[in-house]
Amino acid sequence: QVHLVESGGGLVQPGGSLRLSCAASGRTNSINTMGWYRQAPGKERELVAKFTYNGRAQYGDSVEGRFTISRDKAKNTVDLQMNSLQPEDTAVYYCYADWSAPFGYVAGTAYWGEGTLVTVSS
Fold it and tell me: pLDDT tens-digit profile of 53-99?
């Protein structure tokens, strides 16, 4: 069992910044991938950023160059620094974790946080 708890969401002005944090607890040795997805009303859930099973950072096309993902393996946390925020970044952001291999993630190993709302006003 893995539990994911997000924090750091809020309201910011366009061009501003926020830092999200996700803390993993439980059987953290059963996951090797952690990151962030987001979903806005009327849109599909999309990848924001994640660390792959081999430790490489991967970013969604819409945020690359503006967002930075980081982690503290000892504390089992992963953070998302979001800069140059725009109204289209408004969404519920979800922490995500799974167990992956070169062929992809292993079915039944995906975990999701409850989500934290980020609102960028214009």
Answer: 899 999 999 999 999 999 998 899 999 999 999 999 999 999 999 99
Nearest-angstrom CA–CA distance, 86 and 94: 18
65 to 29, 62, 74, 95, 115: CA distances (angstroms): 30, 9, 27, 20, 23
Q: In Å, how far are 80, 111, 116 from 119, measured between CA atoms?
A: 15, 24, 10
3-state percent helix, strand, coil for the chain, nearest multiple of 5: 5, 55, 40
Is the CA virtual torsion 26, 59, 114, 17 positive or negative?
A: positive
Measured in residues, the chain has a length of 122
